[in-house]
Write a structure and sequence with these properties.
209 residues; alpha+beta; four-stranded antiparallel β-sheet; three-stranded antiparallel β-sheet; DUF4419
Length: 209
């Protein structure tokens, strides 16, 4: 038969399993807080709240009925990447992950594609709620930095506080490999001497203002 047909296999991936940190009540509390955004008289805030609520509703439901098919489908639809077949084609992302990419690092709304542009792209809809399709390079960074004044023995130093989601932590557990986001923070200073000073246990605690 191979003289008459061509054969191909499309590879894909999903989460083998998902472990939610915290308790159901923690996520339910976040859901309640997010609902408040929907009360703000601003179109973008209302649209964002609608999508975040839908994601959180499924996350909360995951505690009660993790094996239900709609819950499994929800986790499979976290993100989908699509790229054209031509050289230099734009790579887009869809799925409920895009609800967390509503604004960029510059505070501007992330560019989303119109219904006409979406005619050839896969769009996720959960219970009637449509999630945006964005460019892959529009995903905002998960790290923030702020300048702060740090007061030591008798002098003030300007340092930069860097915090956020820095990468992935890989954990070996029995015969499984577990990956989870790794969060952290760093205090950066251009002064090597000052860096040595703040790690000297003989110094009194520094005050952060």
């Amino acid at each position: 038969m191979k003289e008459y047909f061509s054969y191909g296999v499309r590879l894909g991936c999903s989460f083998p399993s998902v472990t939610l940190l915290g308790k159901k009540s923690d996520w339910a509390d976040i859901l309640q807080r997010v609902a408040w955004f929907g009360t703000i008289d601003h179109e973008d805030a209302v649209s964002l709240a609608l999508r975040l609520r839908k994601v959180l509703e499924y996350i909360v439901a995951s505690f009660d009925r993790p094996d239900d098919e709609d819950i499994r489908q929800f986790w499979r639809r976290a993100v989908h990447e699509n790229a054209g077949d031509t050289s230099g084609a734009i790579v887009t992302l869809s799925g409920w992950l895009t609800a967390f990419c509503w604004w960029g690092a510059d505070g501007k709304k992330t560019q989303k594609y119109s219904d006409q542009e979406l005619s050839f792209l896969r769009v996720l809809t959960l219970d009637g709620v449509k999630f945006p399709v964005i460019r892959r390079d529009s995903v905002p960074t998960g790290v923030v930095k702020v300048p702060i004044s740090l007061y030591g023995e008798s002098e003030e130093k300007m340092v930069t506080l860097l915090a956020g989601s820095m990468g992935m932590q890989v954990i070996k557990e029995d015969d499984e490999t577990i990956a989870q986001p790794a969060s952290g923070w760093w205090m950066l200073s251009a002064s090597k001497q000052f860096t040595q000073d703040i790690t000297n246990t003989g110094k009194r605690p520094l005050l952060l203002h």
